[in-house]
Amino acid sequence: MNIEIVSIAKKERSTYDPLYKELIKMISRFAKVDDTELFNKDVTKAHTISPEASKQAYSKLLEPYISKGFNVILHPDGKIIDSYEFSKLLDGKIAIKFFIGGAYGFEDEFLKKSDVVISLGNITMSHKIAKAVLLEQIYRGFSILSNHPYHK
After folding, report:
1. Rounded-to-10 torsion of CA 128, 95, 107, 81
2. Which pLDDT tens digit goes with each residue over 97-115?
3. Is the overall model pTM greater than 0.90, yes or no?
4. Parts of the chain with a pLDDT under 50
5. End-to-end Cα spacing for the chain
6. What span, in angstroms and rounded, lies between the C-alpha atoms of 41 and 77?
7. Measured distance CA(16)–CA(61) in Å, rounded
8. Which is it for the CA torsion 58, 62, 68, 73, positive or negative?
9. Radius of gyration, alpha carbons of the chain
10. In sequence order, what are the beta bridge partners of 119?
11. 95-100 and 32-38 beta bridge pairing
């Protein structure tokens, strides 16, 4: 299986990088993970204009990444699911893309292009933490599907 995480984020070194690397290594038993971080001048400029302009800039930047494969968008208004429901998202897929938006979320039109919109919970977290939680849930989901004891 191929998994791609596409996020609105500046490419920069982070204290979370070793954690991402370790989680991706754990997941590699089950799937190949690509991590794509996007941030351009249009997004930077839009952040100085308005939340709506920012959402439009995110959509424009992410639009080419929406594919005919299975697309999952992380959004605060998405459905809150448990780890077992999350594992079902992974089950039987050849490829899956997860989208993490910018500070202002996504336009409704962009959300409609996904197969499912989920939330990681009711708390607010940085994009870097959201990515770590997502990676951990991907590993946990594969552990559930393969009856590995990690998820217990």
Report:
1. -70
2. 999 998 898 999 999 999 9
3. yes
4. none
5. 24
6. 27
7. 24
8. negative
9. 15
10. 80
11. unpaired
